[in-house]
Amino acid sequence: MQLIYMSGHGDDHWLVEGLRQMGHIVELAGWAQETAALAAEDGYDLVLADMPRLDAALIARLSSEAPLAVLADAAEPAERAAALRAGADACLIRPLHLIEVQTQLMALVRLSDRLRPSPLQRAGLSLDRGARRLSIGPRETQLSAAEFRLMTFLLRREGEVVDLARLDRHLLGAEAEPQPQRIRALVARLRAKLRRELGAALLHAVRGHGYVLRLDD
Question: CA nearest 89: which of 80, 97, 100, 98?
Fold first, then answer.
């Protein structure tokens, strides 16, 4: 899962590091304007907004295509209801348990996937998020965490050429050192695996521009 984390009162390093150790990409963002701009780029599974008290006006500004979970130190039932009406998809209240937070966030992402039109169905493919398994009919392949993030990112941009720098930033995080060779190697390994195990490469290099995923192979 790749998510944007924004905080209005200091980052919760315990939560951020915990999610990262579970294999998720967590990108830190400033307050509402920066977060909304990042979310508008798509490619993120979820926005997690951390605020001392639930702010319905701010939540409305953050609403985007990606599911929005809000985290607060305390909130009355009426405040939680107002947050949900304003556009939040879930409200989490401290104290938190990391495994519960991850499970709730993953449930939001699964629901979003079911509601979003999927190009996979048209192509006869199936992607199991929980097991990180991609299948075509009876043939299936197990994806590593990095391969899964790459596939889900490109699936949302089926037919669109994505340049190497953008892949690098979204897969490794904006704070990480650029590693274009690592991305090239990841794409090459995944393309070979898909061709070998599913009989379709799906990923294509566009010389001088980047990579594109096509499901009409």
Answer: 80
